[in-house]
Amino acid sequence: MEFEKELVEIKSKIDELENFSKEKGIDLKEQIEKLEKEYESKLKEKYKSLSSWDKVFVSRHPERPYTLDYIENMTTDFIELHGDRLFGDDPAIVGGLCRIDGKKIMIIGHQKGRTVDEKLYRNFGMPNPEGYRKALRLYKMAERFNIPILCLIDTPGAYPGLEAEERGQGEAIARNLMEMAGVKVPIISVVIGEGGSGGALALSVADKIFMLENSVYSVISPEGCAAILYKDAAKAPEAAENLKISAQNLYELKIIDGIIEEPVGGAHRDYKCIALNLKNVILSSFLELEKISVEELLENRYNKYREIGSFIVNEN
Fold this sequence. Notes:
This protein is an alpha/beta fold. The chain is built from 14 helices and eight strands.
């Protein structure tokens, strides 16, 4: 990433000194420790002052943990459930039953790939209609068995291909929005990477919405916004700032309920740490939500979305 160039240079110097020390049998421990401290200091400094455009790159980092990584590091007894019972299975969305510290939870999330083959198989984390219909089937199953729902959001958007439109992409997303509003169990949604457009919204109607510290959440990508509004994709950094897509901006605007702290340098640097941070937040939130009656839960969920975007008119 562009803003990490200085860090890469320091890391390269550390590696050079370590190799030289081994080859020549010279003790360079003091110099190496000095550079390591400088590296840690610079790392903290850089990640404290990231722009919205920088956060876009961090949220898309190829080593950033995806849904299956959180399932591996945060859950036990995971049983993946497949198919929408209408057309087929969509690997861009994974979901199933699991336990988190013994608590039964239905977990559903977008899944990207890392290798070329995985990316193609997962369709770069862009679901087709059957992915959203699978998610809806799991929402309803969780409701039937009174199991709370956790949604992990990480997608550039719903797949915009012709075949997706032919199979009812817009209807599938709209139905999820409507049905999630009335699901009679607690729902928590967490943006773990990219929260892009309607592709993210279909997993976002929840009682509480959280974002990881360096994730982004927006109606359109900065590149798409720049191309449409400015007729110039090079203005994507400006668009990112104006879209208010960072967790910090969205918390101030009361779109989300909280920000989950990431390890210094981003979630991709320590899977176990970010999984623990996420687990602690969702378990405490579920505990809070389960004290509320179903009627109050649904009323609060309705009001939560009614209040988004509220404003005051000055008649003077």
